[in-house]
Amino acid sequence: MRSPQGAPQDWERTANSIGTTAGLELACGDSFGNSPDDACRDSVGNFRNATRMVGTLRLWHVSAGGIPALLLGPLAVDSTARNLGVGTALMDHALAVAKARGHRAVILLGDAPYYARFGFSLQKTATLSLPGPFERERLLGLELQAGALSGAFGMIVPTGTLEAKAKLVRRAPRARAA
To answer: So what's the pLDDT on residue 141?
Structure first.
């Protein structure tokens, strides 16, 4: 097997595989079988190569002017893994999982030329806004179900449940042996 164009020597092409281990859905490789060896995306959107994370993507529950949606971001790929399909693989996986879990729409703030290949457009977010200043042409939407953002108007706000913060316990330093 050959390494993808420009990939580090220890990376190889792998076949696409999907499996379940202890309730954690894993998908290795993208739909074209292009991924670093041992690279897997987990259910929270991380893309790992054996011992280090090379990419991540997060989805957040929001209300888009009263309509339930997901806000995508950040999408980040380590500079050593750019142009290898990691970002595309993360996007494909995240959108497929969102749709499979019954989410109807995804919104993001990003570069229209990059995200258009996944179906995002300005038309779906024309009547939506964000708190604070933002560049209108970067607010993009994708309907996973036709008409999901119809009638969406107003502010995009978070709706996820807040987790209780864990209490940190400060322990006395251990005594050193003499």
So the answer is: 98
Q: Are 162 and 116 in contact (CB under 8 A)?
A: no
Q: How far is CA 103 from the centre of its chain?
A: 14
Alpha-helical runs (H) found in the chain? 86-100, 112-115
pLDDT for 23-57, tens place per residue?
223 334 433 334 444 445 554 455 555 556 788 89
Contact residues for 134 (Cβ-Cβ < 8 A; gap 6+): 109
More confident of the two residues 147 and 52: 147
Give me 20's structure tokens. 């379940």
- Ranges of beta strands (E only) in 65-162 are 67-77, 105-109, 128-129, 139-143, 154-158
C-beta separation of 55 from 82 below 8 A: no
Structure tokens at 45: 């959107």
Q: In sequence order, what are the residues at sequence separation of 6 or more whose Cβ sits closer than 8 angstroms to the Cβ of residue 162?
A: none
Q: Which of 128, 68, 77 is nearest to 101 (CA)?
A: 68
Whole-number Å distance between alpha carbons of 167 and 169: 6
Distances (CA, A) of 119 to 128, 140, 152: 18, 9, 18
DSSP secondary structure code for residue 121 in this structure:
B
Is residue 45 within 8 Å of residue 54, measured between CB atoms?
no
Report the candidate in 155, 162, 159, 111 with the shortest Cα–Cα distance to residue 132: 155
